[in-house]
Amino acid sequence: MPISPEFFHALGVPLVRGRVFTERDTAGGPRVLVINAAFAKKYWPDADPIGQHVTIAKGLGPEFEDPTREVVGVVGDVRDNGLDQPAPPIMYVPAAQMSDALARLGNGIVPTTWIVRTSGNQASLTAAIQKEFLAVDALLPISNVRLMEDVIARSIARQNFNMVLLSIFGAIALLLAAIGIYGLMSYSVEQSTHDIGVRLALGAARRDIMSLVVGVSGSRSAWRARTRRRVFCRGCCTACAPAIR
To answer: What number of CA atoms fall less than 13 Å from residue 177's CA on the CB side?
Structure first.
């Protein structure tokens, strides 16, 4: 990937080892190369990648032949294929040291992309950036101008859509469960209306009635036992006992 010296700074890619490109890495200077951590781990898992030599485009033809390059730095990984995909091994080459044939080949596969880093309002600078490009070449086509936030949002759009679907299904399941619980409680209360009236007549506390309504399916027998003991302790005659059964 041909890049300018400020590429890593613009994207905030950290330097792991060695150095990044500088303005001294020109066409007449030593051929250098920077790789990412995934590239170093794949090809030199047990060795120091700094100082290793790599030949690019060998066998593509005389016009694509490139001198052997020395690895001078290792940078952090960049997930070009999406945040949910592992970082691919990448080689970075100074744009000033790319041959015309390799540059044309690369531009035919992936068009040239310019990255502009600013601390101001990014949306308001779009027109100014386009104006500067046109001042250099009025015939230079400029398209697909996007903020980095938009690029990230597009890369995780599928994951966001899946999360929205899961949230909707979860809300529907919760609603159905609430409706089911409400229907069960309504039915239980309706079936126990006579018992509730008898218990209120016998002096049952409101708290016990609420416990009966909430836990009628699991604690009806225990509630009856507690109510019977409470009524007996209050001196109710044994003739009333059958009425609370």
So the answer is: 6
Q: Measured in whole angstroms, how far is the alpha carbon of residue 41 from the centre of its chain?
A: 25
Give the per-residue pLDDT at 240.
43
For the stretch 77-84, contacts whose Cβ atoms lie closer than 8 Å and that sit 24 or more positions apart, written own/partner, are: 77/36, 77/37, 77/38, 78/11, 78/13, 78/36, 82/155, 82/156, 83/152, 83/155, 83/156, 83/159, 84/156, 84/159
Residue 61 and residue 166 in one domain: no
Q: 188 burial class (0-12, 13-18, 19+ CB within 10 angstroms)?
A: middle
Q: Give the residues across from 70 on adjacent strands.
A: 32, 53
Give the pLDDT score at 220.
44
Cα dihedral value 23, 24, 29, 30, nearest 10: -100
Angle, CA 41 vertex, CA 47 and CA 76 arms, to 5°: 115
> How far from chain centre, in Å, is Cα 92?
27
Domain that holds residue 39: 2-115
Q: What SS3 class is residue 202?
A: coil
What is residue 164's three-state secondary structure?
Answer: helix
Does the predicted TM-score (pTM) go above 0.85? no
- Tell me, yes or no, whether 79 and 11 share the same domain: yes
Percent of the chain with pLDDT over 70: 82
Bridge partners, 93 (sequence order)? 2
Question: What residues does 75 pair with on adjacent strands?
Answer: 15, 36
Distance CA 113, CA 123 (A): 18
Do 97 and 201 fall within a single domain? no
Q: Does 69 map to a domain?
A: yes
DSSP state of 238: G
